[in-house]
Write a structure and sequence with these properties.
The protein has 319 residues and is an alpha+beta fold. The chain has eleven helices and twelve strands. Helix 7 packs antiparallel against helix 10 (281-290) and helix 10 (281-290) packs antiparallel against helix 11 (301-318). The protein starts with a helix and ends with a helix.
Length: 319
């Protein structure tokens, strides 16, 4: 046996031993990787004592700013109290981030585990058989998502914008209740841009942290003097509502073709499938009401909620 193999056995005990992770004083066993993004890794873990499963998010911080952003995510998530927003079970960080190269810290966040996965997974499965959701199912679920967003937009002292709302950032409980996750991009919603440098900084940040097929038009081309507000989330909600009807964002196909999503978004042209369209004109009208290219013409969350509930009432009366 070579020295490398021996060192692995000495470190882990044996090849079959479960990898263990401690978050504060709680011991977890690593089961499998659930996924990873540009800034974090999410693993499925099991509490060594209770045997209950959780999702463990690990954020690697290469600098002080990374660590501040990760701790800000924890702070914002803990402050938002809503049934349809993810709750943190526990968190900690190890090491200390510094500007010095190779000096890193790791943030660990223990989160609920949702075996059903995300709304994106659910829609993808239904899309393979063209099994559309009913208008009642869409409006009921969308209303709950909107109410969670309302909680963010009403946050005091300043409104919070999620800035990366998409079907992949909405988990589903066993009873198919939506839960908004991943507040890593969440920030103060209202940003005053004064000058081209600030505009470019926000545009670069949006390109890095906001998924393209759900990104608001004003974040593709940030004006040098403007006010960005919580209505960036409203655009994303419109894309989510469209995806709940037709399985994908209205700009996903553009993205998959490799064409310019920015041009498609800024054009404001929303195409609705004509063949086998199972939805009433009122639902299409709601999507168009939300997806206004000009932020000043786009509604706030209260109007979106009101119109969604109004449509839901009409649907229930027809049944």
């Amino acid at each position: 046996m070579n020295s490398l193999g021996l060192s692995i056995i000495l470190k882990r005990g044996c090849f079959c031993a479960k990898e263990t992770i401690y978050v504060n004083n709680t011991k977890y066993y690593l089961i499998e990787n659930l996924g990873q993004g540009g800034f974090s890794v999410v693993d499925l873990v099991e509490n060594a004592h209770t045997k209950k499963k959780y999702a463990l998010k690990k954020i690697i911080c290469h600098a002080i700013e990374d660590q501040k952003n990760a701790l800000r995510e924890i702070e914002i998530t803990n402050q938002l109290k809503h049934d349809n927003i993810i709750k943190i079970i526990d968190s900690t960080f190890k090491g200390s981030a510094d500007i010095v190269i190779n000096t890193i810290s790791e943030i660990f966040i223990v989160l609920p585990y949702f075996p059903r996965g995300t709304l994106a997974n659910y829609l993808e499965i239904r899309g393979t058989t063209n099994h559309h959701l009913s208008v009642n199912e869409i409006c009921t679920t969308f209303s709950k998502i909107c109410d969670a967003v309302r909680c963010m937009h009403e946050f005091k002292p300043e409104p919070i914008a999620h800035r990366d709302l998409k079907t992949a950032n909405i988990c589903l409980t066993d009873s198919l209740q939506p839960v908004i996750i991943d507040l890593g991009s969440a920030t103060e919603a209202r940003v005053k841009i004064c000058g081209s440098q600030e505009a470019q900084q926000l545009q670069d940040l949006a390109a890095e942290r906001c998924s393209m097929p759900y990104r608001a038009p004003e974040l593709f081309n940030v004006e040098s003097y403007c006010m960005i507000d919580e209505r960036t989330d409203i655009w994303s909600l419109g894309c989510i509502l469209y995806a709940m009807c037709y399985f994908k964002s209205p700009f996903d196909t553009v993205h998959e073709r490799g064409d310019s999503v920015a041009l498609a978004v800024l054009s404001g042209n929303i195409h609705f499938p004509e063949e086998n369209a199972p939805y009433p004109e009122e639902l299409h009208d709601l999507i168009k009401f939300i997806l206004k290219v000009q932020p000043s013409e786009r509604p706030f969350i209260y109007s979106v909620l009101s119109k969604t509930q109004e449509l839901l009432s009409k649907v229930e009366m027809r049944v």
